[in-house]
Amino acid sequence: MTAAVNALFQPFELGNLRLPTRVVMAPMTRSFSPNGVPTADVVEYYRRRAASGVGLIITEGTTVGHKAANGYPHVPRFYGDDALAGWKDVVDAVHAAGGKIVPQLWHVGNVRRIGTEPEADVPGYGPMEKVKDGQVVVHGMTKEDIQEVIAAFAQAAADAKAIGMDGVEIHGAHGYLIDQFFWEGSNQRSDEYGGSLANRSRFAIELIKAVRAAVGEGFPIIFRFSQWKQQDYTARLVTTSDALGEFLAPLSAAGVDIFHCSTRRFWEPEFEGSDLNLAGWTRQLTGKPTITVGSVGLDGEFLQFMVKTDKVAQPANIEGLLERLNKQEFDLVAVGRALICDPDWALKVREGRMQDILPFSREALKTLA
Description:
The protein is 32% helix and 16% strand. It has 369 residues and is α/β, with parallel strands linked by helices. The radius of gyration is 19 Å and the shape is globular.
């Protein structure tokens, strides 16, 4: 193993969180949990990645206990005795394999469509009401609704701690509920939750504070955010490093321990005049550890695979990634599709067997290998 690669397999410590490596499994929706309950196949799916050298697993998005949280079939829940028992099995298996694990807590917001499980008649919930053909398809959230969702996140975090999870990740990215409040395009409220970016951040800040109160000090809170949205891949919350600092400071102060900075390509600079990516800027501005992500280990970005295609993403060298990690631009590296197609990705990288890494195609999404 070269000295550069060795950086990826050094331990990471933050308070009580001790990771054996810097490799993180990125959260990726897999939809293999009927009725929202993780199965034995889900347990094995995560266990195999931990056994092969993934230091921290961030689970696929798991919905909190709010009636409008879910947007897709067969995604796991993080509420109810049956689902929590399923996740306890996952936790135990990952720990036995030497890894750590946190759930990604998720509310899809206005992405939800009427007819979605578990309550088909419940519309999406979002910052603003949306009516189509005389029917409310997105319920504009009242202040009471906001507090109910915050309470659901706090309860999920408390449950995560109770079943032995090593922390939680709050999903504040990609055009889902928390991000819908951040983004001016979807949040044009006239109350204290709308207007300036500081006001549009109020929902997230209150939610993070509630999660911190629920889990106490010392239990890691990861916050995932993105500039891009599902609705607009060119969208930007902020366009300067100064504005990014102003956005992140209150989130950090509210209780975030680690920022997970979602980008489509980890090597792209975030702002002109610097080679730093989003994770690099976030680390510099907040002083908090960061996770970088975005097409790690593959030569084709994920957008090419969002539609039916025969394209195959081949393994790519990670020399640029390792150079940035060695310079401490960021602290942890999240790997997505490369870990879907090859559960032994981390082991093969560690052993220098890059030629043995499996390519990624949409076929890999059909099973939990």
